[in-house]
C-alpha cells in the first residue's frame, strides 16, 4: 500500500531543484523543431493547492518556492521556471504549485507527447482531472519503471524521462538503477533525470557507484542540500543524476545553485555539480 502523497511536499526545496532542472532540460529540447516525448514514471497529481490541509501541515513550500516568489533580481536562467509559477498564480499571492507533468504540458508543443505513470488511486484521479483531457497526454495507472521500458525506444527518437519515486520501498534504490541501465540499452540517446533524496550520504554514494558500474558515459550529478549531512534527521537535501544532460545545464547550475542557496538557506547549504562518469570523447 502506497502512503506517500506529494501534496505534503509540493514546492519544497527538492521540488525547486527538480523542476528547475526539468524546465531547463525541456527548454533545451524545444530549441529543435523535431517532436519529442516527455515520460514521467512517477507523475503525482499534477497540480497542488498550497492552502490545502496537506501543504499547510508541513509548510515545506515556505522554504522552497515561496522564497523565490518574493525574490527580486533573479538570475536569467531561472526565468523560464519562474514564469511557469507566475502563469499559474497571476495575482500577487502564491496559491498553486505545479507538478512535473503540469510543467511539461505547459511547455511542450502540439507535436510533442506526454506519457505519465501514477499508481496511487487518489493521485491518479487528480492527474486525470488535471491533465487527462489534453490530447497529447496518456495517463497510465501502472508501475512507472516497467511502463518506461515498454515505451523505449520512442517513435520520435527523442525523449526526456523523469524518474521521481518516493523511495518508500528500499528496493526502489536498486530498481531505478537497473531500469536506467536497461532503458539506456534500448534507447541510448534519450535524456534521463533520476531524482534522489539525501537522507543518508552512504546511500547516495552507493547509487553513484552503481551508476558508474553501468558503463553509461557522461552522467551529471546535481545536488542541493539546505542542511548539513546527517543521520536520523530525515531529508537534508536532494539531487539528480542525469544521463545525456543538455550541454549548457552544468554551467547554468553552477551559476544558479549559489543563488538558490542564498534564497533557501541564507548561504548555509551545500551543492554539487559534477560528472560521475567520463564523457564519451574524453
Ligand atoms: N514527479 C512528481 C512531481 O515532480 O510533481 C512527484 C512524484 S512523487 C515524488 C512520487 C509519486 O510516485 C507518488 O505520487 C506515488 O504515488 C507514485 N508512485 C509510487 N510508486 C509508483 C510506481 N511504482 N509507479 C508509478 N507511480 C508510483
TrEMBL record:
SUPFAM superfamilies: S-adenosyl-L-methionine-dependent methyltransferases. S-adenosyl-L-methionine binds at residues 19, 42, 100, 118, 143-144, 164. PANTHER family: RIBOSOMAL RNA LARGE SUBUNIT METHYLTRANSFERASE J. The active site is at 164 (proton acceptor). Keywords: Methyltransferase, RNA-binding, rRNA processing, S-adenosyl-L-methionine, Transferase. InterPro entries: RlmJ, SAM-dependent_MTases_sf. It comes from Thiothrix winogradskyi. This is Ribosomal RNA large subunit methyltransferase J. Pfam families: RsmJ.
Amino acid at each position: 500500500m502506497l502512503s506517500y502523497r506529494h501534496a505534503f511536499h509540493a514546492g519544497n526545496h527538492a521540488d525547486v531543484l527538480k523542476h528547475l532542472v526539468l524546465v531547463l532540460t525541456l527548454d533545451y529540447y524545444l530549441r529543435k523543431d523535431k517532436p519529442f516525448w516527455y515520460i514521467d514514471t512517477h507523475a503525482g497529481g499534477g497540480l497542488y493547492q498550497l492552502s490545502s490541509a496537506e501543504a499547510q501541515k508541513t509548510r515545506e513550500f515556505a522554504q522552497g518556492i515561496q522564497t523565490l516568489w518574493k525574490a527580486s533580481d533573479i538570475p536569467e536562467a531561472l526565468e523560464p521556471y519562474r514564469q511557469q509559477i507566475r502563469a499559474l498564480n497571476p495575482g500577487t499571492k502564491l496559491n498553486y504549485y505545479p507538478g512535473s507533468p503540469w510543467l511539461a504540458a505547459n511547455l511542450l508543443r502540439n507535436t510533442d507527447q506526454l506519457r505519465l505513470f501514477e499508481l496511487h488511486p487518489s493521485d491518479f484521479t487528480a492527474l486525470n482531472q488535471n491533465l487527462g483531457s489534453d490530447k497529447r497526454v496518456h495517463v497510465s495507472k501502472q508501475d512507472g519503471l516497467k511502463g518506461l521500458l515498454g515505451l523505449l525506444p520512442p517513435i520520435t527518437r527523442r525523449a526526456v524521462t523523469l524518474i521521481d519515486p518516493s523511495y518508500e520501498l528500499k528496493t526502489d534504490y536498486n530498481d531505478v538503477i537497473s531500469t536506467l541501465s536497461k532503458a539506456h540499452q534500448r534507447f541510448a540517446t534519450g535524456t534521463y533525470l533520476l531524482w534522489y533524496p539525501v537522507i543518508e550520504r552512504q546511500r547516495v554514494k552507493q547509487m553513484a557507484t552503481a551508476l558508474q558500474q553501468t558503463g553509461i558515459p557522461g552522467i551529471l550529478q546535481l545536488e542541493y542540500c539546505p542542511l548539513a549531512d546527517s543521520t536520523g534527521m530525515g531529508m537534508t537535501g536532494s539531487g539528480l543524476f542525469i544521463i545525456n544532460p543538455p550541454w549548457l545545464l552544468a554551467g547554468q547550475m553552477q551559476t544558479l545553485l549559489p543563488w538558490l542557496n542564498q534564497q533557501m538557506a541564507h548561504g548555509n547549504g551545500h551543492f554539487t555539480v559534477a560528472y560521475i562518469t567520463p564523457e564519451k570523447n574524453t
